[in-house]
Structure prediction request, 213 residues.
Amino acid sequence: MFSKKVINPYDFLSHPLTPQTIRNRIGVVRSHFLSAENLHHEDRLELTRQIAQAPNGSIKEQLELELHFYDHFFDRINRISSLLILYSLLENLMAQICKNKGEKHNVLVDIEAYGILRFKAYLINEFGLNFSSPEIEKHWAKISTLNKLRNSLVHSEGDLEQYGKYSRAQCKKLKNTINSTTGLSLYFNTVMISKCYVMNNINAIEEFLLAIN
Prediction:
C-alpha cells in the first residue's frame, strides 16, 4: 500500500502530491470502509443464526429489531461517513493539484470559490484539461452524482422529506438521480446506499485524481 521509497511511509499527509500519495490517501479510506463493512457483515450473520434458533417469538422479535438497526443505521453511518470523508479528500487533493499545476507553469491560481466545479473550470481554462476524455469522463460522471447527493447527506442525513422543505427543486432532481443510479435507493424518503456504490466512488475518485494529476 505504501511506497518503499518513502522514508516514513506513515507520514504521507505532508508528502508532495504524487500518484503514490494519492493511492495512499484513498487507500486509507478504502481500508477503513471495508473493515467496518466486514465487521458488520459478520455481526449480521451471527444475528441471522440467532434468529433462526430463537426459542420464542419475543426473543426473535428483539433480534430482528437489532438486525434492522444494522441494515438501516449502522451500515448507513459507515457508508455516509465514508462518502463524506471521500468527498472532502477529493476537494482537498483537487485544490492541491490546481496549486501544483499553477506553480509549475507559473500560472496564477485565481479561483473565486472553493469546490470541485471551480477546480474543474480552472483546470480546463488554464491547462486545457479534457474532462470529456474517456479516462476522465467516466469517473467524473460518478463524481457529479456524488456531488448532487452530498448536500442531502450533509444537511439532512439523507432525509429527502426534510431536505425538500428547503431545496424543493434540488430534491426533485436528486430523487430522479437516485432512481437512475445503481447502488442508490429510497426507503420511504430516506436515501439508502449500498456497499458497491461506496466502493465504485472510492475507485472512481482514485482513478480520476491519478488522471488529472
Residues 17-212 form one domain. The first helix runs from residue 19 to 52. DSSP finds seven helices and two strands in the chain. The first strand starts at residue 184 and ends at 187.
